[in-house]
Design brief:
Blueprint (H helix, E strand, L loop, with lengths): L1 E7 L8 E7 L2 E7 L16 H7 L8 E4 L2 E4 L2 H19 L4 E5 L7 H13 L5 E3 L6 H11 L7 E2 L6 E5 L3 H4 L9 H10 L3 E5 L5 H5 L2 E3 L6 H14 L12 E2 L1 H8 L4 H8 L3 H13 L3 E5 L1 H4 L4 H14 L9 E2 L7 H7 L6 E5 L6 E3 L8 H6 L8 E5 L3 H4 L3 H9 L3 E5 L12 E3 L9 E2 L9 E4 L1 E2 L12 H15 L4 H12 L3 H11 L6 H5 L5 E5 L15 E2 L3 H13 L8 E4 L15 H4 L7 E3 L1 H6 L7 E5 L4 E8 L7 E3 L14 H5 L14 E2 L4 E2 L4 E6 L1
Parallel strand pairs: 6-7, 6-17, 9-10, 9-13, 10-11, 12-24, 17-18, 18-19, 25-29, 26-28
Antiparallel strand pairs: 1-2, 2-3, 4-5, 4-19, 8-14, 15-16, 20-22, 21-23, 25-32, 26-29, 27-28, 27-32, 30-31
Bound molecules: iron/sulfur cluster.
The site of iron/sulfur cluster has 12 residues, from loops.
Length: about 700
């Protein structure tokens, strides 16, 4: 008998409502839910891949163990016993920090990992914690922690009411937001333009978003901080600063004037490639618009000065009076009050409380930069990592210098992966514990409620019941916790939180409790009776109540940024032997490395190509379709070229998440469409030393001729 389920696509930040038609244990059809209160029927081509993930013949259903003769299926009991033993033995023999955790990007879309998973990880005492945060949004979180006192109090563009948006290093038409949860961005940007608003894109590539913008300015990769600082200078020089309602709360406006005073538009023309008049016009346009907002994303964050760039975006929104104002950069008020819970449980975030052992890099909120994870595994000494628990991640493809990380993983004493695939990373594990996939588990967007451009809440029960031989990720954590707590290595306080969450019934009960105590006082019952979600209204001003700094002030300038400006200015004089700069790019039909085993998403035109400007191509006598070798300080790859004036001269672009030709994986479709890994070129040795974030954009490269 066919059944209709209303659910949420959990493949990216946009949280689109979907309808899943099923019969028995088969998916018949997936399409957009027109009645979804937030996405109103919008979906992208990736949503259908939820079916492919569920039906994938390559996915694992039961635990497997690596043996000398290959992978062997083992029982869950045997697997849990061996994994618990591996964790205990590693920590007992070599100390707590010898065991590391890595949390991949899909984990933020997973209710079980965001609730019991987080509690489990925190209850295992180790400082060797890493995640995809430090190849992604870390600079935004650092800026939120430094300026507003809470790492999860991140402002998002009020896209449906703004009349002037400056988009820096972001392609929301393809990402559907990103640190701005906004399904159907094309319609939202079109609506912005039809109400007389202006869209300005700053990017080294004429992206899909740039193509429909009112203005697009090419900029040299990695130089956004210079541009933004010059805009700050113009605002002060032309008396355009107007902080508005929050003025009495903001400290540091005068200091900001001084810090920007030397950086006029003329002084950054050469380094950014943008002419001074365009920079001035941009500053004036933003200052004079009624509801302006600055927004930046991956290209802005994952570069040499990503920390400064994310900070300056907030600084600009404050100086033009846009912070916390309708149409500006606003704060969501999620039904599960993550900022409030972070305050209550001491998780508002901290920075540089300790440093990494090998390279002396700052921690952020208890995590070390993932760009140094391989160093911590390879370099001998007290605290060397000997064991790893990798959860929903493929860092060999998604973090800098994949080949180095691969050799580090191969040398570990013990590794467990919680993942449904044998991929480029998990192939190094001793044991793989496969959890259920998205259609088989309940879904609630714990994290993205923070970033939504309109407050709403939706709880989607699992489309399919899990089978007896399967385990949810939170059940995996529960089994490991049960074994470890008997032997006593867990933090008592964190462990008791885990126990309470478990006794109350797991993630669903945790969400029920959080909804009841949240700002909208919702109940799980109400959400379960509202399969299309509950609309909670437009974003509203949240300051000063939402401020979490000790002195209840907004800190425009703090020490880390003050100091890092010197590094920015010094970089102007630097010379480099590599003539080209590599940037990443995102494709609507791809999401990091984890959807390449879906035939419907990878078929058709080759997605993993190197974009190159016609002038650069001519100087090397290269045409579209030619294969070239491109090299960086970290390594080299051979890839086909696509000649296009979409990229700035001197810039080349590769999409990320590819490179499925390594041996030992079991993802047959992905292997047929292998591509090359951009992270065989990115350099783990060069990071944004302020935030600890990886540099994935503006990587110096050259063609090997
Ligand atoms: S934009 Fe696509 S991948 Fe993202 S949630 Fe919506 S349907 Fe899923």
């Amino acid at each position: 008998m066919p059944q209709t389920h209303y659910s949420t696509c959990s493949l990216c930040e946009a949280t689109c409502g979907i309808v899943v038609e099923t019969e028995g244990r088969r998916v018949l059809k997936i399409y957009g839910d027109e009645n979804d209160v937030f996405s109103k029927g919008y979906i992208c081509p990736k949503a259908a891949a939820l079916q492919d993930l569920y039906e994938d013949p390559d996915r694992l259903w039961e635990p497997v163990k690596r043996t000398t003769t290959g992978w062997r299926t083992i029982s869950w009991e045997e697997a849990f016993d061996e994994v618990a033993k591996g964790i205990l033995v590693t920590q007992k023999a070599h100390g707590r920090d010898a065991l590391a955790f890595y949390l991949g990007n899909p984990s933020v879309h997973c209710l079980g990992i965001m609730t019991l998973g987080q509690l489990f990880i925190r209850s295992v005492r180790t400082r060797s914690r890493f995640s995809a945060t430090s190849v992604d949004q870390l600079p935004h979180m650092l800026a939120a922690q430094q300026m507003f006192g809470n790492q999860v109090r991140i402002p998002v563009p009020d896209i449906d009411r703004t009349d002037f948006i400056v988009i820096v290093g972001a392609n929301p038409l393809v990402s559907n937001g990103s640190v701005m949860t906004a399904p159907g961005m094309k319609s939202r940007l079109k609506a912005l333009k039809s109400r007389g608003g202006t869209v300005v894109v700053i990017d080294p590539r004429r992206t899909q978003t740039a193509a429909i913008a009112n203005e697009h300015h090419f900029i040299r990769p990695g130089t956004d901080a210079f541009l933004l600082l010059a805009i700050v200078q113009v605002l002060f020089a032309e008396n355009l600063v107007s902080v508005g309602r929050l003025e009495a709360l903001v400290d540091g406006v005068d200091e900001m004037r001084v810090l920007a005073s030397e950086t006029n538009p003329e002084s950054v023309e050469q380094v950014t490639g943008m002419d001074a008049e365009s920079i001035r016009a941009l500053a004036r346009g933003a200052a004079k618009a009624k509801r302006p907002v600055f927004y930046g994303r991956m290209g802005a964050c994952t570069q040499e000065f990503g920390g400064l760039t994310a900070w300056l975006l907030n600084v600009l929104n404050i100086l033009i009076g846009s912070l916390d104002e309708p149409g500006g950069a606003m704060f969501a008020n999620p039904a599960v009050d993550l900022p409030g819970l972070a305050s209550r449980f001491g998780l508002k975030g901290h920075y540089d409380r300790y440093r990494s052992r090998v390279r002396d890099l700052p921690e952020f909120s208890g995590e070390l930069p993932v760009a140094t994870m391989a160093d911590e595994m390879l370099v001998d000494g007290d605290g060397k990592i000997r064991g790893l628990v990798s959860i929903a991640g493929n860092p060999v493809l998604s973090t800098p210098n994949g080949p180095k990380l691969e050799s580090a993983l191969a040398g570990l004493d013990f590794m467990v992966a919680i993942d449904p695939y044998i991929n480029e990373t998990t192939r190094h594990a001793n044991i793989i514990l496969p959890p259920t996939t998205p259609l088989e588990r309940d879904h609630y967007d714990v994290v993205f409620g923070l970033l939504m451009v309109r407050n709403n809440a939706k709880y989607a029960p699992a489309v399919f019941e899990r089978q007896p031989e399967q385990r949810h990720d939170w059940e995996i954590f529960a089994e490991l916790w049960a074994r470890l707590q008997k032997s006593g290595p867990l933090s008592k306080a964190k462990s008791s939180l885990f126990k309470r969450a478990l006794l109350r019934g797991g993630p669903r009960a945790v969400i029920g409790m959080a909804l009841r105590t949240g700002p909208h006082k919702l109940s799980l019952r109400k959400l379960l009776k509202s399969p299309h979600g509950v609309d909670l209204g437009a974003l509203k001003s949240m300051m000063p109540a939402a401020l979490a700094t000790k002195d209840e002030r907004i800190h425009l300038v703090t020490d880390p940024y003050r100091k890092d400006l010197a590094r920015l200015h010094a970089s102007k004089e630097r010379e480099c032997e590599f003539p080209l700069r590599l940037i990443g790019r995102r494709h609507l039909r791809s999401n990091n490395s984890w959807l390449h085993n879906s035939e419907r998403l990878v078929k058709g035109k080759e997605g993993c190509t190197l974009l190159m400007h016609p002038d650069d191509a001519a100087s090397y006598s290269i045409s579209t379709g030619d294969e070239v070798t491109i090299a960086s300080a970290a390594g080299e790859v051979r890839v086909g070229v696509e000649v296009t004036d979409e990229v700035l001269r001197g810039v080349v672009s590769l999409p990320h998440g590819w490179g499925h030709s390594r041996s030992g994986t079991q993802t047959r479709t992905a292997e047929k469409h292998a591509g090359v890994s951009m992270n065989d070129l990115t350099n783990d040795a060069a990071i944004d030393v302020l935030s600890g974030n990886a540099i994935l954009n503006g990587v110096p490269v050259r063609l090997v001729t």
